[in-house]
Automatic annotation (TrEMBL):
Database matches in PANTHER family: NADPH-DEPENDENT 1-ACYLDIHYDROXYACETONE PHOSPHATE REDUCTASE (PTHR44169)
Protein origin, superkingdom: Bacteria
This protein's UniProt keywords: Oxidoreductase
A Pfam family annotated for this UniProt entry: adh_short
Annotated protein name in UniProt: Short-subunit dehydrogenase
Family: Belongs to the short-chain dehydrogenases/reductases (SDR) family.
GO molecular function, a single term: oxidoreductase activity
Organism annotation: Bradyrhizobium sacchari
Annotated InterPro entries: NAD(P)-bd_dom_sf (IPR036291), Sc_DH/Rdtase_CS (IPR020904), SDR_fam (IPR002347)
SUPFAM superfamilies: NAD(P)-binding Rossmann-fold domains
Lineage summary: Bacteria, Pseudomonadati, Pseudomonadota, Alphaproteobacteria, Hyphomicrobiales
Length: 237
């Protein structure tokens, strides 16, 4: 699905990858771009409409979906991450609850709110921002990884369910992206602009998944191996 002349709604779009999605959508000729965010004060991007939404607050989601009922491309981008001592940390349950509320249940809530209108459109799409962490063991990100694994599974179920409704569902898998979210982590990072270009290109090509950096591509390629990357990660990852 080409986004030219379409209406795009992005969650978590006040900065980082979400804002990159909004800007690229404008460059590609989207008719309207809604930037969903918890606080709209001070947001000023030409041609981009700020909309208040908190993916953990059902009332704000319902209001946003009603305001942006003309949406044809929904991008579930909002997410949070945090480091932890490991999967046996005393904080793992509490942190997992936080991660799931935004990274998994947030995707579910927003998708449920927007889907009735999306399914009425002749062309519609949903992009879910996922992560290579679903295949990469990183104990310091255990709760985040679990939440993204759940979101990946939900994306796969959603894609199959909506196939006959004419709604394209695209899963974006990527490693670390150079945004505020990863500012304290010293690892190679993908450019947000490059990630969104690849994602919109994949959407236009009718794809169901996109691996938006080399590390994620390599990791995905190990999944059928006898020793897949989630058991022994490839060197350099």
């Amino acid at each position: 699905m080409d986004i030219k002349n379409e209406t795009v709604f992005i969650t978590g779009a006040n900065r980082g990858l979400g804002l990159a999605f909004a800007r690229e959508a404008r460059l590609r000729g989207a008719a309207r771009v809604y930037a969903g965010m918890r606080k709209t004060d001070g947001f000023n991007e030409p041609g981009i409409i700020p909309v208040k939404i908190d993916v953990t607050d059902p009332a704000s989601i319902t209001a946003a979906a009603a305001l942006a009922a003309d949406t044809t491309v929904l991008i579930n981008n909002a997410g949070i991450a945090a480091l932890i001592d490991g999967p046996l940390s005393a904080e793992v349950a509490a942190q997992s609850a936080r991660m799931f509320d935004t990274n998994y249940y947030g995707v579910v809530r927003v998708t449920q709110a927007f889907e009735p209108n999306l399914s009425k459109k002749p062309n519609a799409a949903i992009i879910n921002v996922l992560s290579d962490i679903v295949w990469l063991p990183r104990p310091i990100l255990a709760p985040y990884a679990a939440s993204k694994a759940a979101a990946w599974s939900y994306t796969n179920q959603l894609r199959f369910h909506l196939r006959d409704h004419g709604v394209q569902v695209l899963g974006l898998h990527v490693g670390f992206v150079d945004t505020d979210l990863t500012s304290g982590i010293d690892v190679p990072k993908a450019s947000p602009a490059d990630v969104v270009r690849q994602t919109f290109d994949a959407l236009a090509a009718g794809k169901s998944e996109v691996m938006a950096d080399q590390g994620t591509t390599v990791l995905k390629g190990t999944l059928a191996a006898e020793e897949p990357g989630y058991i022994t990660p490839p060197q350099g990852l």
